[in-house]
């Protein structure tokens, strides 16, 4: 990451020597920062303290980690598995290509893993291969994006998009309940995704409880920083004054915050979605419009590892009376505010 | 010929004009069933236009077409095909990545409810190929994999896959070697035996003597002789018919006879070769000299020009300009050394049709009008203007769009480009193609003047009088080989035509 | 200027001698797209495109004033629209050169992404704003040169070469970021996107955009580089036979496009305060569309910088109108598609009327 000290910076910047540029560029790909993340064990609820059971091999197949949340999923799965000395994790190179992901799952089946954790690139197209794993006697823990039929998984664990909207709406509603004629703006994700529709539905349902609040504008961004900046700057121009903003996704929120900063606006507060580290830090610092975010916790991958291990060892999970793991677990979209952010900060993703 | 059967096809008084050119000027043609009717004529005599009229690809402006006694309108190629007229063009119109069977049935696929009956098509194709003496060609072979002779056979099979009564063959022997020509003749004989009429176009007189029945000679868009017996008419009579002219071009004479030893040659080519296109060539051109290359299409003349110019990479030999050797296959090196080319396909190879005259003229001299890449546009325009004035290009407007100009003026713009560049050697490939009569004379004067000013000129033309009228020295080409070199004054049109057609001095 | 000054003489002259030679169906005379009318000289055509686009912009402004009055007719909104046009605008200037030169560059979005993430890595940010700018430009030019070498000397079809670049540059930017958003921590860069650094009320990004537009116009219309670009796009074979170094020219055109992407990448970093591998999404389509409605021929040989920039402004204004009126993005996509079709049809039409 460091530039060779022998090369003069001035020469590099202005001389334009191709070789120098090459060296410079090669040195500039590093993203190692000094204040590195905390270790795995602090990032979520501690692993259960039960003693080791029989050795378990867990196969994990996810989509390509082209998004902060998805790389956090991989990271949580990996670090959780490392905490157990009886768990071996076989993790595939993530892929967004359905055919490729099917191939990866098939090879995991062939290598006789004890249990599979699958976050499908597309739930519908991967249902068949999950079914065949189940038929081969390999239980499947379905992570987040649900398969077509319950027969294709032993247990589903995932987030609650409707709940995200609902909790964001209730939080905003409670904050604004004494404000006459309160105005709310929504910056949603891409409209062609089912999850966007669910989030908006939850948000609207929650706001319906507060007759003093009106949603005055809603525009869709593309889950990217660039689109967040672009759409938010337009929204700010369109609505000269409002009281609260809910942004569906913290990645596009980076752009939205930038637009708010550039417009110099601060008459409202902003609620995020998903729970990135950056947003949690901002909530903790409390010096921007960001006051809260509703979680779509990537820790679900760690939970999936726990479930897979328990399933393979034929145990239930701690805190539940049953002898087996449940078949369907929907996670709560907690609202992270300044009051509780300390606790959630380690789960924030980049 | 009173006892002859009624003609299957009669054309009378066909005229066809293109902007600036009268391609057919009242042509009559009569084809009898079962005969081989040969069409002869120099390039530009109107043969191609005439067969396109027969094929329904061109609509005549005036004139009548009678098919089996009934007047018909051949409004498109399909209607001609329906009547039973098939055409095999020189440039075969096959789809190279489809199979033989698919090509043969292209456009009239044998199908049931949209599904091609492939088996039947294959069987039928095999039969046709066997009839043409080529049972070894498999119907499933991809056409692009066949030799050009094989492709021609496929083209014929396609023609015969209809109920064909008349086949037009445009220089079918040009792509064939002697054995294959023998097979072609056998096919033609079989066809005529089935009472199919054949219109046969060739430059090779000996072929016409072998298989032709009657000959029609075209010249300047007219049929100057019709229905001559192919076997009896004397060669010199045919050549005379082909070359005799109504319009005699006047070629400007040079002021003083050219002194061939006065100057060092500006361009020297030594053993310049492109395998498969032309044999090793030695050539010297002196400043002010005009050297003519006479030969038929496909004799390698354009290839020689383009290889000298670096547009094609030679397989051997060198080109020197003023003693400096050119980098083989580099146009940039050739232009830098002072060569300029006015290519054969003016629109495709020389002109920027969306641009003004100025920009077309200045394109090769941009560095002269720029400092540090910054264009001096008024200087550029003025220079272009004075050049086109000098060449009396019309309109006298450097801002006119080049596409609005006539062919002759477009050619002048190309010459102006090299004039502006102050080139030392000018390579002219068919400079008067598509140029009307009046403009031709002007171009001739221009070429003469350029030479008088010391430019060395290498001139390629299918029009033998043009070569003889302009050049000081003529190289006669036949199949990639220089078969004769002589001062132009020692040659005449008949002699050159003999040389290019027969290759011997008979 | 001289081209525009004297169109009339040629118009009359062409009536006297309307004789293009040879048989008409020759391939070379084939449809070269709109504007083939023999009596339309370049100067006039330029005006036609520009005028029709200005007309569309005027109509959009009227719609904006009616439907979103105060919010639309506001200095802030003008600043906003111009800022939003800036990044894609700079990319489109480069794309216009590529298209006039007879090529296509599908990798612009991916190069913007790669340059923006490369110049926002922790390591690059240590060098401050200068290092980040240098890095963005070097990555852009580097990718452009690779495109150019593949296309000019490969030789590869531009579509394929730039498609390959698109995929690999996106892959590399994902590899660098690991999918996460790289926040800019250099204050001078962040400040550049804020209101305080507006110069006479003009955002710095808009100034960069204006400068690039002006430079692009000069390069296209006043230099040998521009002239050669038009020539190889209009007729590559003729350009080669006229002695133009076609390969070198192609190489430089793609390097130029890469440079524009590098500049745009840095602008995007300033705008969004971050670098992300999803940056520049669909820039290739948007910039090609803007150039097309600006009058650039897909087949090459003709196009204007002004037209392309107006094309960008049309698209940006449409987005602006939709957001201000709180309409769904689905309708916006439909409207954008319809505008492209309408613009092209209109140009065809006006071209054929004058023919």
UniProtKB/TrEMBL annotation, chain A:
Coiled-coil intervals: none
Domain Periplasmic binding protein: residue ranges: 58-315
Subcellular location: Cell envelope
Principal location: other
Superkingdom of this protein's organism: Bacteria
Annotated PROSITE patterns: TAT (PS51318)
Segments of this protein annotated with the region Disordered: 29-60
The protein's name: Ribose transport system substrate-binding protein
Automatic annotation (TrEMBL), chain B:
Any GO MF annotation of the entry: ATP binding
Top-level taxonomic group: Bacteria
InterPro entries on file: AAA+_ATPase, ABC_carbohydrate_import_ATPase, ABC_transporter-like_ATP-bd, ABC_transporter-like_CS, P-loop_NTPase
Keywords, sorted A to Z: ATP-binding, Nucleotide-binding, Repeat, Transport
SMART domains per UniProt: AAA
SUPFAM superfamilies: P-loop containing nucleoside triphosphate hydrolases
Domain ABC transporter: 9-245, 261-504
Name of the protein: Monosaccharide ABC transporter ATP-binding protein, CUT2 family
Source species of the chain: Streptomyces zhaozhouensis
TrEMBL record, chain C:
Polar residues bias: start-end ranges: 1-13
Location within or outside the cell: Cell membrane
Keywords: Cell membrane, Membrane, Transmembrane, Transmembrane helix
Region span, Disordered: 1-33
Membrane topology, as annotated: Multi-pass membrane protein
InterPro entries: ABC_transp_permease
GO MF annotation list: transmembrane transporter activity
TM spans (from-to): 48-68, 80-100, 131-153, 198-220, 251-270, 305-324
Top-rank taxon: Bacteria
PANTHER family attached to this UniProt entry: ABC TRANSPORTER PERMEASE PROTEIN YPHD-RELATED-RELATED, RIBOSE IMPORT PERMEASE PROTEIN RBSC
Protein name per the record: Ribose transport system permease protein
Naturally occurring in which organism (per UniProt): Streptomyces zhaozhouensis
């Amino acid at each position: 990451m460091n530039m060779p000290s022998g090369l003069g910076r001035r020469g590099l910047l202005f001389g334009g020597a191709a070789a120098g540029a090459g060296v410079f560029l090669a040195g500039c790909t590093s993203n190692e920062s000094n204040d590195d993340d905390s270790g795995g064990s602090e990032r979520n609820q501690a692993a259960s303290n039960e003693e080791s059971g029989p050795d378990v091999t867990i196969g994990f197949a996810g989509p390509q980690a082209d998004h902060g949340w998805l790389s956090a999923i991989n990271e949580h799965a990996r670090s959780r598995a490392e905490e157990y000395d009886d768990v071996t994790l076989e993790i595939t190179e993530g892929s967004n290509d359905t055919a490729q992901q099917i191939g990866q799952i098939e090879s995991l089946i062939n290598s006789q893993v004890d249990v599979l954790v699958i976050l499908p690139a597309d739930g519908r197209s991967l249902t068949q291969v999950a079914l065949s794993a189940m038929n081969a006697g390999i239980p499947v823990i379905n992570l987040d994006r649900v398969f077509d039929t319950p027969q294709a998984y032993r247990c589903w664990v995932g987030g609650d998009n409707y709940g995200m909207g609902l909790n964001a709406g209730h939080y905003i509603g409670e904050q604004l309940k004494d404000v006459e004629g309160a105005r709310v703006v929504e910056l949603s994700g891409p409209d062609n995704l089912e999850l966007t529709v669910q989030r908006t539905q939850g948000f609207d349902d929650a706001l319906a409880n507060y007759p003093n609040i009106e949603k005055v504008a809603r525009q869709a961004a593309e889950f990217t920083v660039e689109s967040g900046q672009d759409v938010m700057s337009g929204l700010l121009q369109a609505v000269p004054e409002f009281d609260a903003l809910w942004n569906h996704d913290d990645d596009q929120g980076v752009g939205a915050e930038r637009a708010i900063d550039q417009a110099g606006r601060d008459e409202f507060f902003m609620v995020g979605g998903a729970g990135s580290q950056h947003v949690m830090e901002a909530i903790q610092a409390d010096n921007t419009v960001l006051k809260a975010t509703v979680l779509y916790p990537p820790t679900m991958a760690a939970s999936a590892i726990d479930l897979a291990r328990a399933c393979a060892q034929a145990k239930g999970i701690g805190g539940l009376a049953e002898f087996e793991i449940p078949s369907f677990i929907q996670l709560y979209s907690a609202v992270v505010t300044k009051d509780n952010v300390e606790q959630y900060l380690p789960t924030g993703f980049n | 010929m009173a006892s002859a059967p009624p003609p299957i096809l009669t054309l009378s008084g066909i005229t066809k004009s293109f902007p600036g050119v009268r391609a057919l000027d009242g042509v009559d043609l009569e084809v009898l069933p079962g005969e081989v009717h040969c069409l002869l004529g120099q390039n530009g005599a109107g043969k191609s236009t005439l067969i396109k009229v027969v094929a329904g690809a061109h609509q005549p402006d005036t004139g009548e077409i009678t098919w089996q006694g009934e007047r018909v309108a051949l409004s498109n190629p399909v209607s001609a095909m329906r009547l039973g007229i098939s055409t095999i063009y020189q440039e075969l119109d096959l789809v190279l990545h489809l199979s033989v069977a698919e090509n043969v049935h292209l456009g009239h696929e044998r199908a049931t409810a949209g599904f091609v009956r492939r088996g039947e098509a294959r069987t039928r194709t095999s039969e046709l190929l066997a009839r043409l003496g080529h049972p070894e060609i498999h119907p499933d072979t991809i056409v692009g994999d066949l030799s050009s002779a094989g492709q021609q056979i496929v083209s014929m099979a396609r023609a015969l896959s209809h109920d064909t009564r008349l086949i037009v063959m445009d220089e079918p022997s040009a792509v064939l070697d002697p054995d294959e020509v023998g097979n072609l003749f056998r096919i033609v004989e079989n066809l005529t035996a089935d009472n199919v009429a054949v219109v046969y176009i060739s430059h090779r007189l000996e072929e016409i003597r072998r298989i032709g029945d009657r000959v029609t000679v075209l010249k300047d868009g007219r049929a100057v002789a019709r229905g001559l017996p192919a076997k009896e008419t004397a060669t010199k009579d045919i050549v005379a018919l082909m070359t005799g002219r109504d319009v005699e071009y006047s070629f400007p004479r040079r002021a003083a006879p050219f002194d061939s030893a006065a100057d060092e040659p500006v361009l020297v080519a030594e053993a310049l070769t492109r395998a498969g296109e032309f044999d090793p060539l030695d050539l010297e051109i002196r400043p002010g000299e005009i050297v003519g290359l006479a030969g038929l299409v496909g004799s390698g003349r354009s290839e020689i020009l383009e290889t000298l110019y670096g547009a094609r990479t030679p397989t051997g030999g060198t080109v020197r300009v003023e003693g400096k050797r050119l980098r083989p296959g580099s146009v940039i090196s050739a232009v830098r050394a002072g060569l300029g080319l006015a290519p054969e396909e003016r629109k495709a190879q020389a002109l920027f049709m969306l641009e003004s005259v100025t920009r077309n003229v200045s394109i090769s001299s941009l560095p002269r009008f720029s400092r540090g890449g910054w264009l001096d546009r008024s200087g550029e325009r003025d220079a272009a203007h004075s050049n086109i004035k000098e060449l009396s290009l019309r309109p006298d407007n450097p801002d006119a769009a080049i596409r609005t100009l006539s062919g002759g003026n477009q050619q002048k713009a190309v010459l102006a480009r090299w004039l502006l560049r102050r080139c030392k050697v000018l390579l002219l490939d068919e400079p008067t193609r598509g140029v009307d009569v009046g403009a031709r004379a002007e171009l001739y004067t221009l070429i003469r003047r350029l030479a008088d000013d010391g430019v060395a000129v290498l001139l390629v033309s299918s029009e033998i009088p043009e070569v003889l009228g302009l050049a000081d020295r003529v190289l006669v080409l036949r199949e990639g080989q220089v078969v004769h070199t002589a001062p132009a004054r020692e040659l005449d049109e008949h002699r050159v035509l003999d040389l290019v057609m027969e290759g011997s001095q008979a | 200027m001289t081209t525009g000054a004297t169109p009339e003489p040629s118009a009359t002259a062409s009536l006297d001698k309307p004789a293009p030679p040879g048989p008409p169906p020759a391939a070379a005379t084939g449809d070269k797209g709109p504007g083939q009318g023999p009596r339309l000289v370049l100067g006039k055509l330029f005006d036609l495109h520009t005028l029709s686009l200005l007309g569309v912009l005027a109509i959009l402004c009227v719609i904006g004033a009616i439907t979103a009055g105060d919010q639309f007719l506001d200095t802030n909104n003008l600043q906003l629209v111009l800022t939003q046009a800036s990044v894609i605008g700079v990319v489109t200037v480069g794309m216009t050169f590529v298209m006039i030169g007879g090529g296509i560059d599908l990798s612009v979005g991916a190069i913007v992404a790669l340059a923006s993430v490369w110049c926002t890595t922790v390591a690059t940010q240590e060098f401050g704003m200068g290092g980040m700018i240098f890095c963005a430009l070097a990555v852009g030019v580097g990718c452009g040169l690779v495109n150019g070498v593949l296309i000019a000397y490969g030789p590869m079809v531009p579509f394929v070469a730039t498609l390959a670049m698109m995929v690999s540059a996106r892959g590399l930017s994902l590899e660098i970021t690991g999918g996460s958003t790289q926040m800019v921590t250099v204050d001078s860069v962040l400040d550049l996107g804020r209101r305080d650094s507006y110069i006479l009320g003009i955002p710095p990004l808009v100034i960069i955009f204006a400068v690039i537009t002006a430079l692009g116009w000069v390069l296209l219309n006043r230099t040998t580089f521009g002239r050669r670009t038009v020539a190889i796009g209009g007729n590559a074979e003729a350009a080669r036979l006229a002695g133009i170094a076609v390969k070198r020219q192609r190489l430089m055109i793609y390097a130029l496009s890469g440079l524009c992407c590098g500049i745009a990448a840095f602008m995007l970093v300033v705008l969004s305060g971050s670098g992300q591998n999803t940056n520049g999404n669909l820039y290739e389509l948007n910039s090609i569309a803007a150039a097309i409605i600006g009058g650039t021929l897909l087949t090459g040989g003709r196009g204007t910088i002004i037209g392309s920039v107006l094309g960008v402004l049309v698209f940006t204004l449409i987005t602006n109108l939709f957001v201000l009126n709180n309409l769904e993005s689905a309708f916006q996509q439909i409207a954008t598609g319809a505008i492209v079709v309408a613009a092209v049809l209109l140009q065809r039409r006006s071209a054929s009327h004058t023919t």
